[in-house]
Amino acid sequence: DSGVTQTPKHLITATGQRVTLRCSPRSGDLSVYWYQQSLDQGLQFLIQYYNGEERAKGNILERFSAQQFPDLHSELNLSSLELGDSALYFCASSHPGGGQTGNTIYFGEGSWLTVV
Amino acid sequence: AQKVTQAQTEISVVEKEDVTLDCVYETRDTTYYLFWYKQPPSGELVFLIRRNSFDEQNEISGRYSWNFQKSTSSFNFTITASQVVDSAVYFCALIDGSARQLTFGSGTQLTVLP
User: Fold this and answer.
1) CB neighbours (10 Å) of residue B46?
2) Dihedrals φ, ψ of B36, to 5°?
3) What's the gap in Å between the CA of B99 and the closest CA on chain A?
């Protein structure tokens, strides 16, 4: 158990809909990352938050947004869903220094999103 | 820019064989960190090891060992006496001083047959 908690574990929704994925980081971790894993794109970095502030942005679509709340949990919002958004979405967290200082980045179990 | 290459897409071995998973990385930074993660069929990403660029000492943890060679920009992972439970996708990843996120290789699917 990495200590990173993601909900829901599985989600099936229709095209055009909006979903919210939730993540609770490990106790004491200030950095939260979101990754998308799809069959054709592999593991892709979406976005990073550090103590409530956006710190880095990767290949995140404009239809997607995220935030980190004062209690450090994070949500990833996916809207106007398309079939191609079907993927495994990971949340990860690391200690205050973040991955750049070499702190280990721990991943949650992921949220399986299926868009039908 | 950082890049990680795992040239082996799939490897299949018979139980008790040793197997080495290759990882080659690219970075312009002198300070960087390398990771290996395991993704079993259930889907979670499990952290295995972290190594910084200043520590080329090889590491052994039970049946797992890692060989870090800066001269060849490689960070290979060996499983000794493989077991069926080792079957998973293994990812090598890199983060350097200029990036703010892990860059993953494409992963190696390891299948250990009984």
Assistant:
1) 17
2) -125, 135
3) 7
